[in-house]
Design brief:
By secondary structure, the protein is mainly α. Among the domains are: about 5-185, HUPs (Rossmann fold); about 280-315, no CATH class. Helix content is about 40%, strand content about 10%. It contains 13 helices and 5 strands. The protein has helices at about 20-30, 45-50, 55-70, 90-100, 105, 110-120, 130-135, 135-145, 160-175, 215-225, 250, 285-290, 305-315, and strands at about 5-10, 35-45, 80-85, 150-155, 185. The protein is globular, with a radius of gyration of 26 Å. The N and C termini lie far apart (about 65 Å).
C-alpha cells in the first residue's frame, strides 16, 4: 500500500514555547509514528526572512527549533527532517511556479490584504512596508508542498487558503506541462490543544505572552508567577484559595497516569474553616464519611480526594 505523504513546515522565528509543543510538536511527532504515513518536516528559514532580516537571530532560532524537535522525540529514521535553504531545488521551483501564477491570485492572499488594510487605516500608501517576500509568500509555500508531492498538509485555519492556492498553481502547471504534481489537501485538526499565555490570551509569539520550553528553574518560576488567572466562585477564604480558571494539568498528563475525577471548585488543601454554629461544608461529619456515606449534593467544596483523605484520617 502506498504511504500518504504528510508535510509540515516550522517557521524559524523566536524560541519554541509550550504552546508550540502542545499545538504542533507533540501531535506531529505522534503522527510520524503511523505506519501508513511518510512524514516530511522542514525548518522554513526562507519564510522567516519575511519577518526578520537579523541573520544571527535566524540562525540561532533555527538551531534552537531543530534541537527542540529532536529533544522531544522526533525520530529522524522515520521522517525526512531538513532545512528549507539546504534544498536549492525549492527556490528553483518557486521561480517556475511564479511564472505560472496569476497576479490576481496573489492579490487575494489574506496576509497581503491585511497588510494593505492596515496601511489604509493608518493613512499610508497601500503598499507601504510590503515586500515582495510577503506578496509572493504563497508561491514559495506552494513550492515547499509540490516539491515532495505531499498528499496532506496539516495547517491552521489561517493557512487553508495557501494550500488551496498551491492546488490551483499545481493544476495550471499540470495543464501546460503534464501531470507532474499531486494536488495537496489541507488538514485541520479541530481538537488541537490551545494553551493560554501569560496574559490570558492564546499563547503566541505575536502577543509576547509565551513560556519558553527550556528555561532555568528560577526563570521558569518567574514566568509561571506572571500568569493571569480568574478565580472561580469559591466559598473558601480568599487568602487560602488557589483556584484558577485555566487548569493545564490534563494537557500535560501522561497517557498512563490515573486521572482523579473531582467536582470541586476549589483546589485548596487542608481542613475547611467553618463559622461557629454552621454546618460542615462537606455536608457530613467525619464519622459519617468514614462509613462511606455520600456528601451533601449542595456542597460546592466537595472533592472525592479531599473528603476521602479526611475519612481515612478519622479511621486512623
Amino acid at each position: 500500500m502506498k504511504k500518504q505523504r504528510v508535510l509540515t513546515g516550522i517557521t524559524t522565528t523566536g524560541t519554541p514555547h509550550l504552546g508550540n509543543y502542545v499545538g504542533a510538536i507533540r501531535p506531529a511527532i505522534a503522527a510520524s509514528l503511523q505506519a501508513d504515513v511518510q512524514s516530511f518536516y522542514f525548518l522554513a528559514d526562507l519564510h522567516s526572512m519575511i519577518k526578520s532580516q537579523d541573520a544571527q537571530a535566524l540562525g540561532r532560532s533555527t538551531r534552537e527549533i531543530a534541537a527542540t524537535w529532536l529533544a522531544l522525540g522526533l525520530d529522524t529514521e522515520r521522517v525526512v527532517f531538513y532545512r528549507q535553504s539546504d534544498v536549492p531545488e525549492i527556490t528553483e521551483l518557486t521561480w517556475m511556479l511564479t511564472c505560472m501564477t496569476a497576479k490576481g491570485l496573489m492579490n487575494r492572499a489574506h496576509a497581503y490584504k491585511a497588510a494593505v488594510q492596515a496601511n489604509q487605516e493608518a493613512g499610508q500608501d497601500d503598499d507601504f512596508g510590503i515586500t515582495m517576500g510577503l506578496y509572493s509568500y504563497p508561491v514559495l509555500m506552494a513550492a515547499d508542498i509540490l516539491m515532495f508531492n505531499a498528499d496532506r498538509v496539516p495547517v491552521g485555519r489561517d493557512q487553508i487558503q495557501h494550500v488551496e492556492m498551491a492546488r490551483d498553481i499545481a493544476q495550471r502547471f499540470n495543464y501546460h506541462y503534464g501531470e507532474h504534481f499531486v494536488l495537496p489537501t489541507a488538514v485541520v485538526d479541530e481538537h488541537v490543544a490551545v494553551l493560554a499565555g501569560l496574559d490570558g490570551r492564546k499563547m503566541s509569539k505575536s502577543y509576547g505572552n509565551t513560556i519558553p520550553l527550556f528555561l532555568p528553574e528560577k526563570q521558569l518560576q518567574k514566568h509561571i508567577n506572571r500568569i493571569k488567572t480568574k478565580p472561580s466562585r469559591c466559598s473558601c477564604p480568599r487568602s487560602s484559595c488557589r483556584s484558577t480558571s485555566t487548569p493545564s494539568r490534563p494537557t500535560f498528563r501522561s497517557p498512563g497516569s490515573r486521572r482523579i475525577r473531582t467536582n470541586r471548585r476549589c483546589s485548596r488543601s487542608g481542613p475547611r474553616s467553618r463559622r461557629p454554629g454552621s454546618a460542615r461544608r462537606c455536608g457530613a461529619s467525619s464519622r459519617t464519611a468514614s462509613r462511606g456515606a455520600k456528601p451533601n449534593a449542595a456542597c460546592s467544596n466537595w472533592s472525592t480526594r479531599s473528603c476521602a483523605s479526611r475519612a481515612s484520617a478519622t479511621r486512623r
